[in-house]
Amino acid sequence: MCGFDLRRLAAVWLCGLTLLGAAPAWAAALERTEPGHQAPPQPGASLPVAPPIVQYALPSQWMTIRSKEDWRKAGSFEKELSKDCAALRFNEIEPMRFRAYYKGEVLGVAFGHGLNLHDPGKKADRKKIYLFRNGDSTNCTVQSLDNQDPRVNPAGNPATTPAAGGFKKY
């Protein structure tokens, strides 16, 4: 048993010596180019602007609603849902993934049928679109408006409702 421990100690000691001997070789390998191999930029030339450094890539964002009216007139204020939003029981899964632009104000958007909506209490109406102002704070306000998409709300826009009340499935 003692011989086994000595062999292990000798192997560790030998690996340590090997690594110490290889360290100067690794230091030389890091220098890949000769100094001055790239020419300095010309005087007066503008340098390229580097992209912003972010820890995580930003998700793609879609502008779903654009309007010139005030956001307060966009739909109806939902008092109970605003309280739930402040308590994180009704909010967006990814804040500002879908956006609505109302006269200088950018609001987050979630859909009642579940797209980008965290609703564990099942309080959302499938035929509504929910607008979140300050959705990531306790000062959250929720506005709701009718979804005009005939696939979700056939009564929303009767002129574009498909015949027989639905789309064909192929």
Please characterize this protein's 3D structure:
This protein is of the alpha+beta class and 170 residues long. The protein has 2 helices and 8 strands. It has helices at residues 2-29, 79-86, and strands at residues 62-67, 76-77, 91-92, 98-102, 105-111, 117-118, 128-133, 141-146. The longest helix is centred in the N-terminal third of the chain and has 28 residues, at 2-29.
Summarize the structure.
This protein has 170 residues and is an alpha+beta fold. 21% of the residues lie in helices and 21% in strands. The chain contains 2 helices and 8 strands; from the N terminus they run αββαββββββ.
Topology:
Elements: H1 2-29, E1 62-67, E2 76-77, H2 79-86, E3 91-92, E4 98-102, E5 105-111, E6 117-118, E7 128-133, E8 141-146
Parallel strand pairs: 1-4
Antiparallel strand pairs: 2-8, 3-6, 4-5, 5-7, 7-8
List keywords for this structure.
170 residues; alpha+beta; six-stranded mixed β-sheet; two-stranded antiparallel ribbon; 8 strands; 21% helix; disordered C terminus
Q: Which percent bin holds the helix content?
A: 10-25%
Strand content: 15-25%
pLDDT averaged residue by residue: 77
Query: Within the largest sheet, what's the order of strands?
Result: 1-4-5-7-8-2
Low-pLDDT residue intervals, each spanning 5 or more residues: 160-170
Helix count equals 2
Say how many strands there are.
8
Radius of gyration: 30 Å
Shape: elongated
N- and C-termini, Cα separation: 73 Å
Order of helices and strands: HEEHEEEEEE
Return the structural class: alpha+beta
